[in-house]
Amino acid sequence: SCTSSRIPQLVSEARVSADGTEAVVSTQSTGYRLAELHPNLTRLIGVGSTFRGRPLIVMEIMGTKKISGVRPVVWVDGGLHAREWITVAASMNFVRKLLEGYGTNRMITRILDSVKFAVQPLANPDGYAYSWITERLWRKNRAPTAVGWCKGVDLNRNFDINFGGQGASHFSCADIYSGPNAFSEMETQGIARYLSSVRHKLLAYFSFHSYGQMWLTPLSYTNKRVLHRDIHLGVAERATKAIWRKSGHLYEYGAATRLLYVTSGDSSDWVYSVLNCTHSYAIELGDTGKYGFILPTKHIKESCTRRHGRCHVRS
């Protein structure tokens, strides 16, 4: 767990082969091991595969208590952008915390007995592998484009919400290339298929990124005030206060257009606007810029702790 003295192989000890495969395998095998250790709580769902054939895995986690009616679903993803390694490590440790806490931690047990979590710790395995072995700050996936020497699509510009608008690029070589059309990528297709299948019971969506320490609320592509703004800000205020109490780290909160920049084709905007899920947030983990994407291993434990503080914030 995140409170143990040893962080798993997710970042600090992953051995990397010539194509970065072992970094991906290390992450996914951790998920498989956790599922094997907790078969009554977990189910692994395949939602497709990448251009290079790597599996796209969602971990479903819920308690054993039977409930009447529909069990709400909470989605969490990490690693949508390849270089944001901390989000992969923290997502997997979030899974570990849930599984190890069930039956021993009263709050985690209560949550898992009432909610199903669907967690995709590594949403962009091809890009993640490439960032391990070739280009540390690689952002996109590794799909071919119309420009032969330029690879990859920014997966967080590929969702069907204001696609190709401000904050995205039509140029294949750009870091924020949105792709030829919405949902052109197998990674975003897999996410969309799964979330669409549970849209009527989707309670909340959380997409983890780095860096900046911000809790971002809808919308990202327009300054228009949304219907649920007061609800969003209330949840964000409670969550960021919990993070402060737990870790002493300050997180800002508010609309991405105010705190960060304008983006189009964003996953959290699509979930909010198209799937009509009120609680849809993008959360930028630490730090605030000293290390940026190259976050030292010693800070992983802190980010895991901060994330677990979020788990306890109920709307």
Mean pLDDT: 88
Structural class, by secondary structure, is alpha/beta
Give the SSE string.
HEEEHHEHHEEHEHHEH
Count the DSSP helices: 9
Question: What's the oligomerization state?
Answer: single chain
Short description:
By secondary structure, this protein is α/β, with parallel strands linked by helices. It has helices at residues 21-37, 85-101, 106-112, 125-133, 186-197, 229-247, 256-259, 267-273, 300-311; strands at residues 42-49, 55-61, 73-77, 116-120, 202-210, 214-217, 252-255, 279-285.
Mind sketching the topology for me?
Elements: H1 21-37, E1 42-49, E2 55-61, E3 73-77, H2 85-101, H3 106-112, E4 116-120, H4 125-133, H5 186-197, E5 202-210, E6 214-217, H6 229-247, E7 252-255, H7 256-259, H8 267-273, E8 279-285, H9 300-311
Parallel strand pairs: 3-4, 3-5, 5-8, 6-7
Antiparallel strand pairs: 1-2, 2-4, 6-8
Task: Write a structural description.
This protein has 315 residues and is of the alpha/beta class. β1 (42-49) and β2 (55-61) form a beta hairpin. It has helices spanning 21-37, 85-101, 106-112, 125-133, 186-197, 229-247, 256-259, 267-273, 300-311, and strands at 42-49, 55-61, 73-77, 116-120, 202-210, 214-217, 252-255, 279-285. Residues 1-17 and 306-315 have low confidence and may be disordered.
